[in-house]
Amino acid sequence: MSAASTETSAPLPTAGSRVFFQSATGVGCVGSGPITAGDDPVQKKQGKVTVKYDRKELRKRLVLEEWIIEQLSELYDCEEEEMPEVEIDIDDLLEVNSDDERASKLQESLTDCYKPTEDFVRELLGRIRGMRKLSAPTKKGL
């Protein structure tokens, strides 16, 4: 039996999926001749969309999230993988108008922490001061 006719146990691709191989110009399957762009009716011209993100704000957010994970690891005395599920939504905190309400939301999230959390809450509130809520990306050039 030839290598081309051996069976495999891998699932067959669905009708919608296709695999394309790029080959040298003029090289195709045996007996099929060269493959040209007009031969494939599925090939379509792809549009180009540019999305503009506020990279500075995203970077600040990433640094803040890394700091939060580090602080929570210290508060819970464990690695990130072992940490209990603690949800701190920065955007939700930014929607709240007063620091007292923000602090109470944070304290609710940290109820099962046995260490004092006041310093963490105070530092986090200081770090989010002046930040903006992340909005959906804006499209540029449309």
Q: What is the radius of gyration computed over CA atoms, rounded to a whole number of angstroms?
A: 27 Å
Overall pLDDT: 73
- How many helix segments? 4
What is the end-to-end distance? 56 Å
Task: Return the string of H and E elements.
Answer: EHHHHE
Describe this structure in words.
The protein is mainly alpha-helical and 142 residues long. The chain has a two-stranded antiparallel sheet. Helix 3 packs across helix 4. The longest helix has 22 residues. About 4% of the residues have low confidence.
Structure at a glance:
With 142 residues, the protein is mainly alpha-helical.
Descriptive key words:
single chain, 142 residues, mainly alpha
Q: How is the secondary structure organized here?
A:
Blueprint: E1 50-52, H1 55-76, H2 90-95, H3 99-109, H4 118-128, E2 138-140
Antiparallel strand pairs: 1-2
Helix pairs in contact: 3-4
